[in-house]
Amino acid sequence: MRFFLALAFSAFLGSFAFAQDPAAAPPPEEPTTEEADPTLAAEVPGASTTEKAVEFIKVLKTGGVVMIPLAALSFVAVLLIFYYMLTIRQGTVVSDKFMNAADALIRKQDYLGLIAVCNRENEAIARVTYKTLDFATKNPTASFEEVREVTEAEGSRQASILSQRITYLADVGSVAPMVGLLGTVLGMIKSFNDLSAASGAVQVQVSQGVSQALITTASGLTIGIPALIFYSIFRGKVQKMISEMEAAMTHLMALLAAQYKRANYRATARSDERPAARRDAKGV
Which of 64, 158, 164, 223 could form a disulfide with 176 if both were Cys (CB 3.0 to 4.6 A apart)? Predict the structure, then answer.
């Protein structure tokens, strides 16, 4: 968690580093002894970092209260991006290990063993397979079409869960520019209020409101644009994984259909053998 907090603060610092108020910048000063002598300046390596931190605080104060929700949105965006990088992977949806085990157990008609494997695995395809086999074992008289309906319903639910997870990042990308726009409106209202209330030179007062408007707008866009870009990347990955899950489920359902046909063929053969055996017994 500390790692995520540090990353969020760094991203927030970088998003507003360029949006500095030129009117609030201190006037140029005469070069001091340390600036004239590079050897003395090298002795204070943290001076530039301190100045950047002070300028960053000034930018936050200039942006007003709108910078608080923008900071929260930037933290959430960074946290979601790293969380999706760790969780949206191929192994979380379909893995070769599970598919090989499922293929072998279905061919052996060991459905209870496959249910046990599904309980141990935390994959979307395992959850779909578990729902399918759980319904099939508890309802032995159900037709294959009914089993297929259960599979399709659970597959649609898992695909919806995968798609819904990444929409939070899209929400952040949509809300951040709107919050920045709110700061713009508040800054312009402040500028016009200062302009109407002042009677003398109002350049500094008006520039503060305009600076607040520009900083909040730039901040909202700086948060929203990367969030939407990463959302597009993750959406492509999710769609690809959903397609692979559908292909894997089609393969497993084809195996189940073959087993159903084999079981029906054996049942039909046995029912045909019984009347023949009875006729032979009567003839004897």
Answer: 223
